[in-house]
Amino acid sequence: MAIILLGFMGAGKTTVSQHIKRPFYDMDTIIEEKIGMSISDFFAQEGEAAFRKIESETLEELLQLEGDIVISTGGGVVISERNRDLLRQNRKYNVLLAASFEVLYERIKEDKVFQRPLFLNNSKEDFHGIYERRMMLYEGLSDLVINTDNRTPEEVARIIQCI
User: Fold this and answer.
1) Domain residues for 53?
2) Is 116 assigned a ligand-binding role in the annotation?
3) Which residues bind Mg(2+) (predicted)?
4) Is 7 annotated as a binding residue?
5) Is 134 annotated as a binding residue?
6) Which CATH number is 82's domain given?
7) Annotation-wise, does 129 bind a ligand?
8) Are the C-beta atoms of 15 and 4 separated by less than 8 Å?
9) pLDDT per residue over 47-92, tens digit each?
């Protein structure tokens, strides 16, 4: 069974998954290995449609793996209808890591390692609109919602391991 971590950028998917005692697959890392460059560079060169195609193929491949695993998705995985269909097939094990917009905004702003194009190229108001639209999609696909605003990654991981 695959536990799939969903959530907006900055919610803690990658960080939390490293504290869960199961084999862990980070979709963004896998995709970057496949394409041989950063996702933001690929986005700039090939466009979003090409990225979403690779993202869907990667999600489908990971969902076919055997055993108890954890998959950390990218924040935009829910944009694609194909991905939403794949996620619906994994019902009972889709976990939304949620945080308030202000907390996420500050986490992303302070993150010097991951420079996110959506954050850099949008006003705070436009970015909030993206957050709102995606949250509706995440919530419709999730079986468990964990607010990460005031929890440590270890606390969130312990909740997930109870599934």
Assistant:
1) 2-156
2) yes
3) 14
4) no
5) yes
6) 3.40.50.300
7) no
8) no
9) 889 999 999 999 999 999 999 999 999 999 999 999 999 999 998 9
Residue 28, annotated as binding a ligand? yes
Domain count, the chain: 1
Residue 52 assigned as binding residue: yes
Residue 163 inside a domain? The answer is no
Identify whether 118 is part of a domain.
yes
* Residue 14 marked as a ligand binder: yes
Task: Compute the residue count for the chain.
Answer: 163
Residue 162 is assigned to a structural domain of this protein: no
Q: Binding site annotation covers 151?
A: yes
Q: In the predicted model, what is the mean pLDDT of the chain?
A: 92
In-domain check, residue 141: yes
- Range with lowest mean pLDDT among 13-27, 117-131, 138-152: 117-131
Q: 88 a known binding residue?
A: no
Encoding tokens for residue 151?
A: 């929890």
HEC sequence for 7-41: CCCCCCHHHHHCCCCCCEEEHHHHHHHHHCCCHHH
Beta bridge pairs of residue 3:
70
